[in-house]
Amino acid sequence: MPLISARALTKRYPGGVTALDGLTVDIDRGIVGLVGSNGAGKSTLIKILLGLIDATAGEATVFDLDVRTRGTDIRQFVGYMPEHDCLPPDASATDVVAHLALMSGLPRTAARERTAEVLRHVGLYEERYRAIGGYSTGMKQRVKLAQALVHDPRLLLLDEPTNGLDPAGRDEMLELIHRTGTEFGIATIVASHLLGEIERVCTFLVAIEGGRLLRAAPLGSFTEQTGFLAVEIGDRVKVDDAGKAELLLPAERGAAALAERLAADGLTASVDGRAVVITMSDARPYDLVRDTVADLGLPLVRMEQRRHRLEDLFRDAPDGDGASAAGPPAVSPPPAPTAPPASSDPPGASPS
Amino acid sequence: MTSPVTAGSATGSIYDLGYRGYEGPRLGRAFAIRSLFTHSLRSTYGLGRTTRAKLAPWFLLVFAVLPAISIIAALVLVGRFGGQISDIIGANSPIRYDTMFSVLSGAAIIALFCAAQAPELFGRDQRFGILSLYFARALRRTDYTLARMLGFAMAVLILYLLPQLVLFLGRVLLATDVVAAFQRDVPSIPPVIAEGILVALLYGGLSMVVSAYTPRRAYAVAGIIALFTIPGIITGIVTGLGSSTAGDLLTLISPGFILERTNALLFGVAGDFDTTFVSLPDWAYFAAVIVGIVGSFGICIRRFQTINV
Question: How far, rounded to the nearest angstrom, does the alpha carbon of residue B73 sit from its chain's CA centroid?
Answer without folding.
Answer: 27
